[in-house]
């Protein structure tokens, strides 16, 4: 049976600057690589557990100092899911007599197989403090133990639960956004597309941070994957391939728009979007191509390419560039979720 034709991604525009890491990132990369290369006791017997432990150690080592904000509250809840309960962590400002705040559901990255709620405490605390939005981080099930669509099912269930709980968080349910980085950006993009129909709660905005949007086409379609995916810039082509192999038990599902949102035949009616990509990221080109497709479909979309930065940089709060980008992202949150 032949596959249906897939929408072609728009041709990305080469970045006029930032084709090489900036000085801060260039000095940071050897430290990052040393942690990636360091032996772990579980490398031989349980390489997946070793990879997860290394990822968490990297996030902790380079988290940096949080923004000063004494009135930030963090608590945890459990959302009922389709097959199990889904852990949530909520970050919000405690402000007396404040108007209802915007609300964001966040899905972490890690190739659908790595990442944990703790890894994103620094980033999400800062974003909540800087933007004034309440942010709910979702501990969705990870592959390969729980392949597609388990993580997406959890993302849907969590989004619906958070929307119902908005007023309990002191938030405006009409100002609900979804956000994710890398594979979490994939989940956020899918949830945003599904929000157009009756499948989920209304979503007012989507924030896609160096998202993984197309796992169905060869790497050669996206020059940034060839330029930056060889191993010198953190994320690799081999890592992308391994992530997809763990996520999908059936490789033919790669073309499904629920796996590759780039293949959605029609993006019209999607929520307004902010798409962010580092210049030195294998995923840069597909992020830009998706933003261009959204624009062509009449969706308000802004694409920002950060010169000199690498994949995952927002989580590395020890970098001045990451801290500046967090402040810019907070500005976008306020802009897109300013009113219902």
From TrEMBL:
Signal peptide boundaries: none
InterPro entries (UniProt xref): AB_hydrolase_3 (IPR013094), AB_hydrolase_fold (IPR029058), GDXG_lipolytic_enzyme (IPR050300)
Keywords annotated in UniProt: Hydrolase
Region (Disordered): 1-30
Any one Gene Ontology molecular-function term assigned to this protein's record: hydrolase activity
Protein name as it appears in the record: Acetyl esterase
Domain Alpha/beta hydrolase fold-3: from-to ranges: 104-314
Family annotation (SUPFAM superfamilies): alpha/beta-Hydrolases
Keyword set includes Cell inner membrane: no
Top-level taxon: Bacteria
Keyword Hydrolase recorded: yes
Skewed-composition ranges (Pro residues): 1-15
